[in-house]
C-alpha cells in the first residue's frame, strides 16, 4: 500500500512541478495571469492548421523590409524592433488567439514570451520561422 502511495505522489509531483517552476518570477502583480499562459512553438504544418482557424490573428514581428520581401498571406506586421511594439501588443485583446513568426523564430520567441508576461494565454510561435515555412514548401506573398 505504501508503494502505491509513493508512486501516486511521485506522479503528482511530475505533473505539478512544471507549473510551479514557471510561477517563480518574483513579481506577484502579474503572476496569476502570466502563469496561465502557455506559449507553444509549433512546426509549419501545425502552424498552418492553427492560422486556418477562424479568429486566429497572424502576426509577423519582422521589419517592414523583411515583410515586403515575403510574408505569409493574411499576416499583419508588428515589428518587434519598433519603439511602439509593446504599445501595439498591449492594445490587443488578451483572450484572442495569436500566431507569431519571424525569420528563424528568435524574435517571435521573444515576442511570445513578452505576450505571455502581459497575460496573453493563447499564443503560437512558428518553430524555425518563415524559413522553415518556405522549406516545407508552403506559400508566401512576395
Description of the structure:
With 142 residues, the chain is α/β, with parallel strands linked by helices. It has seven helices and five strands; from the N terminus they run ααβαβαβαβαβα. A five-stranded parallel sheet has the order 1-5-4-2-3. It is globular, with a radius of gyration of 18 Å. The model is unreliable at 1-37 (pLDDT under 50).
Major sheet, described briefly?
5 strands, parallel
Question: What is the strand arrangement across the widest sheet?
Answer: 1-5-4-2-3
The share of residues in helices is: 40-55%
Order of helices and strands: HHEHEHEHEHEH
Strand content: 5-15%
Number of DSSP-assigned strands: 5
**Poorly predicted regions:** 1-37
Number of helices: 7
Mean pLDDT: 79
Radius of gyration: 18 Å
Structural class: alpha/beta
Rough outline: globular
Q: End-to-end distance, in Å? A: 65 Å
Features:
142 residues, alpha/beta, 7 helices, globular
List the helices and strands and how they pair.
Elements: H1 2-22, H2 31-36, E1 40-42, H3 44-51, E2 56-60, H4 64-69, E3 76-77, H5 85-90, E4 97-101, H6 106-117, E5 123-126, H7 129-135
Parallel strand pairs: 1-5, 2-3, 2-4, 4-5
Could you give a quick summary of the protein structure above?
The protein contains seven helices and five strands, in the order H-H-E-H-E-H-E-H-E-H-E-H. It has helices spanning 2-22, 31-36, 44-51, 64-69, 85-90, 106-117, 129-135; strands at 40-42, 56-60, 76-77, 97-101, 123-126. The radius of gyration is 18 Å and the shape is globular.
Amino acid at each position: 500500500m505504501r508503494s502505491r502511495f509513493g508512486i501516486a505522489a511521485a506522479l503528482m509531483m511530475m505533473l505539478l512541478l512544471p507549473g510551479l517552476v514557471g510561477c517563480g518570477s518574483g513579481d506577484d502583480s502579474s503572476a496569476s495571469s502570466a502563469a496561465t499562459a502557455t506559449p507553444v512553438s509549433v512546426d509549419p504544418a501545425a502552424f498552418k492548421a492553427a492560422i486556418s482557424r477562424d479568429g486566429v490573428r497572424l502576426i509577423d514581428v519582422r521589419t517592414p523590409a523583411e515583410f515586403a520581401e515575403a510574408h505569409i498571406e493574411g499576416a499583419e506586421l508588428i515589428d518587434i524592433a519598433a519603439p511602439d511594439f509593446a504599445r501595439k501588443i498591449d492594445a490587443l485583446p488578451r483572450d484572442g488567439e495569436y500566431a507569431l513568426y519571424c525569420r528563424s523564430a528568435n524574435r517571435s520567441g521573444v515576442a511570445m514570451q513578452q505576450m505571455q508576461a502581459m497575460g496573453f494565454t493563447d499564443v503560437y510561435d512558428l518553430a524555425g520561422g518563415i524559413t522553415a515555412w518556405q522549406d516545407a514548401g508552403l506559400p508566401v506573398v512576395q
